[in-house]
Design goal:
Shape: rod-shaped
Order of helices and strands: HH
Number of strands: 0
Radius of gyration: 21 Å
Length: 93
């Protein structure tokens, strides 16, 4: 049971780490694209407030998604700990 609990936690962590890495990569691409568009608009003398707000909202959305994934990782660890504590001898297999 202990091995199964650990394996489940490890699988969840691995899956969330992949999703977090993908979200970070996506967020970076969006940030770079919006930064480029802002620089172009600035060079053309246009107002960039709306674009800058869009960039900030995208970063916030990405940060919230990453936070939720981190919470899922934490929940997996907490579930494993609860299971381990529910056993009289956590070293038993």
């Amino acid at each position: 049971m202990k091995k199964n609990a650990r394996a489940k936690t490890d699988a969840t962590e691995k899956e969330m780490n992949k999703k977090i890495a993908a979200e970070k990569k996506k967020a970076q691409a969006v940030d770079e694209n919006l930064s480029f568009e802002i620089r172009k608009a600035q060079a053309a003398g246009k107002n960039t407030e709306e674009m800058e707000e869009k960039k900030l909202k995208a970063a916030l959305k990405s940060g919230r998604a990453i936070l939720e994934m981190q919470k899922q990782k934490i929940a997996a660890y907490e579930d494993e700990n609860k299971l381990q504590k529910s056993k009289k001898n956590v070293d038993e297999e």
